[in-house]
Amino acid sequence: MKLSQFKFRLPDELIAQEPQENRDECRLMVVDRRTGEIEHKQFKDILGYYDEGDVMVFNDTQVFPALLYGNKEKTGARIEVFLLRELNADNKLWDVLVEPARKIRIGNKLYFGEDGAMVAEVIDNTTSRGRTLRFLYDGPHDQFKQELFALGNTPLPEYIRREPRPEDAEAYQTLYARREGAVVSPGAGLHRSRELLKRHEIKGVEQAFITVHSGLGSFRDIDVEDLTKHRMDSEEMEASQALIDTVNKAKDNNKQVLAVGTSVLRGIATAVSMGGHMKLYKGWTNKFIFPPYDFTITTSLLTDFHLPYSTMLMMVAAFGGYEHIMHAYEVAIKEGYRFGCYGDAMLIR
User: Fold this and answer.
1) Which residues of the chain are modeled with pLDDT < 70?
2) CATH topology for the 3-63+169-348 domain
């Protein structure tokens, strides 16, 4: 397929800038991927689509406060530093993005915090904006991480055009996040309230967890028209024994397997065996999914409404069918659905 096939006009006012006051009170569009039929519901209505023995798979990654602001030595210039991942705990090395990148060279020192007590030295250039930082901290690693993260802010997506606020630390985190490592929240999971999770549990719907540490690759611009030539950034993931036992049992019993978010959809697709079951997997995935694609395990997908040209939209179209999904997006815009991680939700079944 071609990049231009995922173009549509999205009014700015439909991109949600604020979270819902209550997580599970957003709107829910339900799309039948066989017929394209559309239903308009409230998110709480999702309870009616799943029964005992069905499985919902969640991404239990935890977003860390990756956005820092520091000052360059001598000039005092304000520098934005986006932490991507820790490269070496002993040496306190981090892979980061910096802005403005033209001002940051190897050997420069950056100072963080009101008193400038947290200091980092640039030791390598990795990309045009990428740098490797070595934090000059003399103390235990746990204490270092605690102090570093205390200086950070919630890494909201660029389409949220405001500075992060303290309340975003909770709003941009799923209730079941437990494994630190993501800089992008699995947005489809942000709609889940404790009450709704409990009601599913009472109904006998099983919960399983995969870990996919979502990075910025999902938001990186695609600069090729031919999608077969695009390469996704790698993301660390793990499919555990508990997960594959639960999912494979549901598959063998002809039960539903719901992927809560595109990161889960991609993680499950990465961990599929030749026999069409899930297998243990711990490592990295750079799987790029776009139409057409044959999903052998996932039977339904819960997702947000995504922006034009995004890899997430392409994954959704691969699952729900290109024509059905692009039509559903036309309807969503006409009906005023809210887009982005703080917006409304779509269930494809």
Assistant:
1) none
2) QueA-like (3.40.1780)
